[in-house]
Design a protein that fits this description.
InterPro entries: Acyl_CoA_acyltransferase, GNAT_dom
Low-confidence stretches: none
Pfam families: Acetyltransf_1
GO molecular function: acyltransferase activity, transferring groups other than amino-acyl groups
Strand content: 15-25%
Helix content: 25-40%
CATH superfamily: Gcn5-related N-acetyltransferase (GNAT)
Keywords: Transferase
Protein name: GNAT family N-acetyltransferase
Distance between the termini: 30 Å
Shape: globular
Amino acid sequence: MASHASVRPMQPADLPQVLALQEQAYAGAEFEPERVEVYTNRMRLAPAFCLVDIAPGGRLLGYLVSHPWREAAPPALDALLPVLPADADCWYLHDCAVDAAAKGRGVAARLHHVALDRARALGLRKAALVAVGTAAGFWKRLGYAPRALPGMAERLADYGEGAVYMERAL
């Protein structure tokens, strides 16, 4: 039951389920799944912003990988970050996926809400993400809007056809 699910920080022991869910969520995507090192990198840099929603039996319902970053500068896919920027002005949602069996149960919104509160607590004023596939509609419902920026189409080429850079105020 989604109502009994709990959101908690992602742990190394969650990674097999996270990678399996990533593979399910992006099956047929125009980009390759990211390496496990990307997840361990983000957990090390921003543990409070890498979250999982776990059902009472321990099954992963969804995950959110995010971190403080700079506005209008999404990191490349599959890139390891040496550090987070000292001048971070934005909460960047790197990846969010929900198990197909848990879709429509508020999992992504719940993960987003927990991390959004943490971003506000840090004083970040904006959130940003790159919507892939058909996800832009979901993110619009959470207050994100597309933002066209010079050179962004080239930056997003690796994300596949129709990838959209989106932002919202916090």
